[in-house]
């Protein structure tokens, strides 16, 4: 990734997202006109695309921050690959192929039949997606929970936002496998709230989510270790790329399933969520190139707390419906609080320095 001047305007990072928004909304209006033949139908589809884009953006603040956290340690070559190949996989893979793949598996039909079903019988398509929500939520919630816990259960972590929680978690990080034991206990606990086949499906999907996280960590570590032995500059290669792709997929589960509450048209969903995905890419690039994560020290903490809350929400969604708007606003609120805390910290530290004193030890902790 090329390193631009520090004076690069914030809006410059979003120019491709703005262009995608314009093109996507025009395409959405065209789809609305073609499918309904009325002005009101066209405006309805236009509005749905806009709402889906906002929904995806609100759900993806934490995704962008976590991406930036991992991306800043990747080599320039793999940074660029993630920002090009990765966005294609995110838009076309998760927003189009993933919903089709679910229907292919759940309905035992071929990919072409799934596309025909999405176009000709959207109500049936939406029903199949809805029925698949429980295992998807269990899988994605478990993977995201491991991502969040892995950040806080780190004995080398010495910057704490909510110190009374994070210090204890960092201290217990020396106990091998503690986060895995916690997640397994939570899986068993939630499974007791379900009955029959639902409980079995929940446990199976959740265990697969846990195994996927562990496999990605192992494979990523082995690949990056191999690259490092070949060249000291090769750290953060394919392993990190693989981790980010699976992470992005887990974040996408909630948005893709939630989108069917607004429309049953797969192509409208792809347009709306695709627009949102471009903003995630733009936010990721901006965070990396502007060094925002190092400037606002608690921003990462807010993102990982949001991830933990999202994972728990996905678990609860197997029991009751929780609107995606609440999930998005909750995550954005936590990130906003962490940003505000970071700004307060920077101001206190600046005041200490202006008085000619060393910054208070609590500020450095």
UniProtKB/TrEMBL annotation:
<feature type="transmembrane region" description="Helical">
    <location>
        <begin position="173"/>
        <end position="193"/>
    </location>
</feature>
<feature type="transmembrane region" description="Helical">
    <location>
        <begin position="199"/>
        <end position="220"/>
    </location>
</feature>
<feature type="transmembrane region" description="Helical">
    <location>
        <begin position="257"/>
        <end position="280"/>
    </location>
</feature>
<keyword id="KW-1133">Transmembrane helix</keyword>
<feature type="transmembrane region" description="Helical">
    <location>
        <begin position="232"/>
        <end position="251"/>
    </location>
</feature>
<feature type="transmembrane region" description="Helical">
    <location>
        <begin position="39"/>
        <end position="61"/>
    </location>
</feature>
<feature type="transmembrane region" description="Helical">
    <location>
        <begin position="82"/>
        <end position="112"/>
    </location>
</feature>
<dbReference type="InterPro" id="IPR007427">
    <property type="entry name" value="DUF475"/>
</dbReference>
<protein>
    <recommendedName>
        <fullName>Integral membrane protein</fullName>
    </recommendedName>
</protein>
<dbReference type="Pfam" id="PF04332">
    <property type="entry name" value="DUF475"/>
</dbReference>
<feature type="transmembrane region" description="Helical">
    <location>
        <begin position="12"/>
        <end position="33"/>
    </location>
</feature>
<feature type="transmembrane region" description="Helical">
    <location>
        <begin position="301"/>
        <end position="319"/>
    </location>
</feature>
<keyword id="KW-0812">Transmembrane</keyword>
<feature type="transmembrane region" description="Helical">
    <location>
        <begin position="132"/>
        <end position="153"/>
    </location>
</feature>
<keyword id="KW-0472">Membrane</keyword>
<feature type="transmembrane region" description="Helical">
    <location>
        <begin position="325"/>
        <end position="343"/>
    </location>
</feature>
């Amino acid at each position: 990734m090329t390193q631009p001047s520090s004076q690069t305007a914030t809006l410059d990072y979003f120019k491709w997202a703005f262009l995608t928004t314009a093109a996507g909304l025009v395409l959405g209006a065209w789809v609305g006109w073609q499918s309904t033949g009325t002005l009101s139908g066209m405006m309805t589809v236009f509005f749905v695309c806009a709402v889906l884009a906002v929904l995806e953006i609100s759900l993806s603040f934490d995704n962008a921050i976590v991406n930036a956290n991992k991306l800043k340690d990747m080599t320039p070559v793999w940074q660029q690959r993630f920002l090009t190949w990765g966005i294609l996989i995110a838009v076309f893979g998760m927003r189009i192929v993933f919903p089709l793949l679910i229907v292919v598996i759940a309905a035992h039909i071929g990919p072409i039949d799934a596309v025909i079903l999405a176009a000709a019988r959207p109500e049936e398509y939406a029903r199949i997606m809805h029925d698949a929500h429980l295992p998807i939520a269990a899988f994605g919630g478990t993977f995201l929970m491991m991502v969040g816990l892995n950040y806080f259960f780190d004995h080398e972590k010495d910057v704490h936002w909510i110190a009374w929680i994070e210090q204890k978690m960092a201290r217990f990080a020396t106990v091998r496998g503690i986060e895995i034991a916690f997640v397994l206990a939570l899986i068993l606990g939630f499974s007791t709230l379900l009955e029959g086949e639902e409980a079995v499906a929940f446990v199976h999907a959740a265990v697969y989510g846990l195994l996927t996280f562990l496999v990605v960590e192992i494979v990523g570590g082995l690949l990056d270790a191999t690259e490092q032995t070949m060249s000291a500059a090769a750290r953060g290669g394919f392993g990190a790329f693989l981790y980010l792709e699976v992470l992005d997929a887990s974040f996408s589960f909630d948005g893709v399933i939630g989108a069917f509450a607004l429309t049953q048209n797969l192509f409208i969903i792809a347009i709306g969520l695709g627009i949102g995905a471009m903003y995630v890419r733009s936010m990721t690039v901006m965070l990396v190139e502007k060094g925002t994560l190092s400037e606002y020290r608690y921003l990462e903490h807010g993102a990982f707390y949001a991830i933990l809350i999202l994972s728990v929400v996905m678990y609860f969604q197997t029991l009751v419906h929780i609107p995606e708007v609440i999930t998005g606003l909750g995550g954005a609120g936590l990130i906003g609080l962490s940003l505000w805390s970071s700004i307060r910290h920077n101001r206190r530290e600046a005041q200490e320095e202006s008085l000619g004193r060393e910054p208070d030890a609590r500020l450095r902790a």
